[in-house]
């Protein structure tokens, strides 16, 4: 399937320069870059969902602390005053 994408002249020049440096066809390079971005995005989303699930599981198991405890720890850790 062919897709037409309109690039700004600056982006096209960057892509062409990269393709030239790597001795690749610009279309092949664009396809590879898009593939990497889409794979990274999918992995990033999956990791975020897993992290949220771990947090929910911890909460359900009773592994949490109060906001006041967290805030006190952060004040100590970052040497912050308790004045508002």
Notes on the structure:
Helices cover 71% and strands 0% of the residues. By secondary structure, the chain is mainly alpha-helical. The protein has one domain. The longest helix has 35 residues, at 26-60.
| Cα radius of gyration in angstroms | 24 Å
- Poorly predicted sequence stretches spanning 5 or more consecutive residues: none
Mean of residue pLDDT? 94
The tally of strands reads: 0
Class computed from helices, strands and strand pairing? mainly alpha
The number of helical elements comes to: 3
Strand residue content: under 5%
Query: What is the assembly state of the chains in this entry?
Result: single chain
Measured distance between first and last alpha carbons:
60 Å
Query: Topology as H/E string?
Result: HHH
Helix content bin: over 70%
Give a short account of the largest sheet. Answer: none
Number of domains: 1
What general form does the structure show? elongated
What layout of secondary structure does this protein have?
Elements: H1 9-22, H2 26-60, H3 67-77
Main attributes?
single chain, 84 residues, mainly alpha, 71% helix, elongated
Tell me briefly what this model is:
The chain has 84 residues and is mainly alpha-helical.
């Amino acid at each position: 399937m062919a897709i037409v994408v309109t690039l700004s002249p600056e982006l096209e020049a960057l892509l062409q320069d990269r393709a030239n440096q790597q001795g690749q066809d610009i279309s092949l390079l664009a396809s590879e870059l898009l593939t990497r971005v889409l794979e990274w995005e999918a992995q990033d989303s999956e990791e975020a969902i897993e992290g949220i699930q771990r947090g929910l599981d911890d909460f359900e198991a009773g592994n949490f602390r109060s906001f006041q405890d967290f805030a006190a720890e952060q004040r100590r850790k970052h040497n912050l005053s308790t004045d508002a």
